[in-house]
UniProtKB/TrEMBL annotation, chain A:
The chain crosses the membrane at residues 6-26. This is Oxaloacetate decarboxylase subunit gamma. The keyword Transmembrane helix applies. Keywords: Membrane, Transmembrane, Transmembrane helix. The keyword Transmembrane helix applies.
TrEMBL record, chain B:
The lineage of its organism: Bacteria, Bacillati, Bacillota, Clostridia, Eubacteriales. It holds the Pfam family OAD_beta. It is a multi-pass membrane protein. The chain crosses the membrane at residues 16-35, 42-58, 78-98, 105-126, 157-175, 205-231, 252-272, 278-302, 351-369. Coiled coil: none annotated. It is found in: Cell membrane. Signal peptide: none annotated. InterPro entries: OadB_MmdB. Keywords: Cell membrane, Ion transport, Membrane, Sodium, Sodium transport, Translocase, Transmembrane, Transmembrane helix, Transport. This is Sodium ion-translocating decarboxylase subunit beta.
Automatic annotation (TrEMBL), chain C:
Pfam families: Biotin_lipoyl. It comes from the Bacteria. It comes from Desulfosporosinus nitroreducens. Keywords: Biotin. This is Acetyl-CoA carboxylase biotin carboxyl carrier protein subunit. Residues 1-70 form the Lipoyl-binding domain.
Amino acid sequence: MSLALTTFISGISGVFLVMTFLLIMIKLSSKLAIALEKKQEKQEL
Amino acid sequence: MELLQGMWTSMAFDNLYWGNFVMWVIALTFVYLAINKGFEPLLLLPIAFGILLVNLPSEIMTPGEGLLWRFYHYGEEWAIIPPLIFLGIGAMTDFGPVIANPKTLLLGAGAQGGVYVTFFGALALGFNIDQAAVIGIIGGADGPTTIFLASKLAPEMMGICAVAAYSYMALVPVIQPPVMKLLTTEAQRKIRMKSLRKVSKLEKIFFPIITVIVITLVVPDAAALMGMFCFGNLMRESGVVDRLSLTAQNELMNIVTIFLGISVGATMPAEVFLTTKVIGVFILGSVAFCCATACGIGLAHLMNLFLKEKINPLIGAAGVSAVPMAARVAHKMGSEADKKNYLLMHAMGPNVAGVIGTAVAAGMFLSVLK
Amino acid sequence: MANIECPMSGKVWKILVKVGDTIAEDDEVIILEALKMENPIFAPEDGVIKEINVKEGQQVTEGDVLVVLE
């Protein structure tokens, strides 16, 4: 496979891979953050 | 008589050739555009002055001694300034819209399709593969990333590509709308999106930490840019180091912009700039912008096939990372179709995701081509 | 009776109406500055201005009630 094609395929799949992975992680971290804050609120009450 | 002759040779007139005069005209045109038309003046003005200085006969760009050469060598060749600018951008950016609607990350990735279309275009026009990568990344509409990648792959292209990236960023409101109109229907432009949910402080603090871990693990070559970017954002969202955060987004940003602008301008003496290649770069640059816009909208249409709650395809075009110009354009197009359609905050999601996307794309180029 | 809610966070740039004004649907009511861009906020329906809850220069966030109509 030519270098140009390798660059293209690894590049575009890399970008989407990173973003998808990031998407999942952000969703998880949001859930965690919201859960943590709820817990804290309960303790304060 | 001899005295006069001696004075003449000690003056610099002898070393000029017609190309220098052409460059003066170009520099002055940029000065005019910056002052009278408000084209990215913060960058274009220093760049224009750098062009003027390097086309006056002096030793200002002589390797090892010239002042501007030192700025250039330590700032750009060592790739220090672009990550510092990313530190500032990180400190300025509110990721709330992305966290509230993480799907927009995919739109930020989609617009990078334009980078690769242009990459092949540049190869077809006879640029070598390193240069083609740098020209392609112009489509990401991110000046610091373009300069960063150029410094690593094709330093000889840095000045031209930076000027192309910055001048096309200023032209986003002209280039994007026709493409956007062509690829969306009136009804699609009218789609209203549900207002974004509130994002808590803790989520915003988690964001830069998660992002830097994920991106550095997958694309280690993007670490310099994304590391600084996320650090800047953490300073902003932590709320405990306001002084550092404000310095990063104001004073530090302004200082490095001065050094960046003038030394990028200085990479463009007439011998380098006045070649047919430059025309190719500018044509490809505009192709890159159009393709990036089209790819972003295309991906938004594709996502709409699967989503229950439709997104307005216009915000896909904001995946081009010119922040916040691209988001403003999407908002304006949306409100032209329907006065009460407020897309601005929705468009900020793909817009800031586009910054991440372009940096990742640059990292991927580096990992293959370095 | 309806409220005009703020569609996005920003700063109130100009208030174009006074209490007691009669306005029609799609009239510009307030200009909001967000991301260095002036965004006109339009009236959702015909009505008379009953209350204006913001001042020029005030920072507002999404969902804030800007104007009460009746």
